[in-house]
């Protein structure tokens, strides 16, 4: 294996913050004079680029850091629907391993460092004989584990993951906690640092919970729920900071209409639609903007109300599903950072730069 500064980003669970850390580390490595590459050996969520399935995180890194020409190598193995079942009855481990090794060698030809992003926890990929631990061992990587804010449960899950890396003789250089509640930051850092030290691990960073990195845009919700946009298409970039189901009396609803609110209401609840629009119009001067309105039940307001909505500069959508179903889907939505999320990308870089001991990571190379 080629000698190169090589860090593998793993985590205790899916959506723990690996991509946030990867985005930040890549930029900081560049600022330190390194020439980094990025690899997602095994991907599960894909997009189609030039008729090929590419992992979403590889696509994001390729677009952000202008290495799009390397996308196929940045995402050598993707697992689509039904793939694991096919693999169990027809294992092709050597083919997959060679594909990953070939991509690694191609990506690092003119580079001196590489960030390798795993998929979920240490054991993910075991079904195709390519767990994160297996891949890290194959590529000669040292590992950074991303945990979530907390003490007991976080340390328990970190140690469970470390055990699998240990069994593959892969060194874990440290831990980063992500999504730590700001008001508990000092306590959690102090206790987790001591707790990990007892286990022979270092806490290399604690990143506070940041609502911006969680909040989707109304456009992203529109695509996720396959909604039809009725008006306000030019404002799809607005971020949804909170969602309310407008099933209450209008005078009670006013208290919940704050900046970034997405209102869910039946299309025949004219009273709540009018309250949402009027509140938005009154607060526009203070740069407060409602995120949008979703009309449910497939019910269209009358012509006069539609004219008012079109003049309001509020993104308005319609769904054939009932309000409860729409609310439940939004509640379960996990929106990964996309190339158009320039604010999120900038925030991710800044958070890693501010809260992660990158010097310690580079020293461990």
3D structure, described in words:
The protein has 16 helices and 15 strands. Helix 8 links the parallel strand 9 and strand 10. It is globular, with a radius of gyration of 23 Å. It has two domains: 5-210 and 339-363, P-loop containing nucleotide triphosphate hydrolases (Rossmann fold, 3-Layer(aba) Sandwich), CATH 3.40.50; 217-331, Udp-n-acetylmuramoylalanyl-d-glutamate--2,6- Diaminopimelate Ligase, Chain: A, domain 1, CATH 3.40.1390.20. The chain has helices spanning 18-31, 56-64, 71-74, 83-89, 93-107, 132-138, 152-167, 185-198, 211-214, 218-225, 250-253, 270-283, 303-311, 323-331, 342-355, 358-363; strands at residues 5-11, 36-39, 42-43, 46-49, 52-55, 77-78, 113-117, 142-148, 172-180, 203-208, 228-231, 242-245, 261-266, 292-296, 316-318. Helix 1 (18-31) crosses helix 15 (342-355). Helices cover 42% and strands 20% of the residues. A six-stranded parallel sheet has the order 2-7-1-8-9-10, sandwiched between helices. The protein has a five-stranded mixed sheet with strand order 11-15-14-13-12, sandwiched between helices.
Strand-residue proportion: 15-25%
Number of E-state strands: 15
Question: What fold name goes in the CATH topology slot of the largest domain?
Answer: Rossmann fold
CATH superfamily of the largest domain: P-loop containing nucleotide triphosphate hydrolases
Which regions are unreliable across 5 or more consecutive residues at pLDDT < 50?
Answer: none
Radius of gyration, in Å, reads 23 Å
């Amino acid at each position: 294996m080629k000698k190169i500064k090589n860090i593998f980003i793993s985590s205790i669970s899916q959506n723990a913050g690996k991509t946030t850390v990867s985005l930040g580390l890549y930029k900081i490595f560049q600022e330190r004079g390194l020439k980094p590459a990025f690899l997602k050996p095994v991907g599960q969520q894909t997009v189609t680029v030039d008729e090929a399935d590419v992992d979403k995180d590889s696509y994001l890194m390729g677009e952000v850091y202008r290495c799009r020409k390397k996308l196929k190598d940045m995402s050598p193995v993707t697992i689509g629907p039904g793939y694991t079942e096919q693999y169990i009855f027809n294992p092709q481990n050597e083919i997959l391993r060679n594909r990953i090794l070939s991509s690694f060698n191609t990506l690092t030809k003119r580079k001196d460092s590489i960030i390798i992003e795993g998929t979920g926890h240490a054991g993910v990929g075991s079904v195709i004989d390519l767990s994160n631990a297996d891949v890290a061992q194959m590529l000669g990587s040292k590992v950074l584990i991303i945990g979530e804010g907390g003490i007991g449960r976080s340390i328990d899950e970190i140690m469970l993951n470390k055990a699998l890396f240990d069994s593959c003789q892969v060194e874990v250089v440290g831990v980063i906690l992500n999504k730590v509640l700001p008001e508990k930051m000092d306590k959690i850092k102090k206790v987790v640092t001591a707790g990990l030290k007892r286990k022979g691990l270092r806490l290399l960073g604690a990143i506070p919970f940041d609502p911006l990195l969680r909040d989707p845009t109304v456009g992203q919700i529109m695509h996720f729920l396959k909604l039809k946009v009725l008006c306000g298409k030019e404002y799809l970039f607005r971020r949804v900071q909170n969602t309310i189901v407008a099933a209450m009396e209008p005078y009670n609803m006013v208290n919940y209409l704050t900046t970034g609110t997405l209102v869910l209401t039946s299309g025949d609840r004219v009273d709540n639609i009018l309250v949402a629009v009027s509140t938005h119009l009154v607060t526009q001067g203070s740069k407060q903007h409602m995120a949008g309105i979703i009309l449910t039940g497939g019910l269209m307001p009358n012509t006069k109300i539609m004219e008012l909505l079109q003049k309001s500069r509020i993104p308005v959508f319609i769904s054939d599903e009932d309000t409860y179903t729409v609310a439940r889907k939004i509640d379960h939505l996990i929106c990964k950072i996309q190339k158009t999320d320039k604010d999120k990308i900038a925030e991710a870089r800044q958070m890693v730069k501010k809260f992660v001991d990158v010097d310690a990571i580079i020293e461990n190379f």
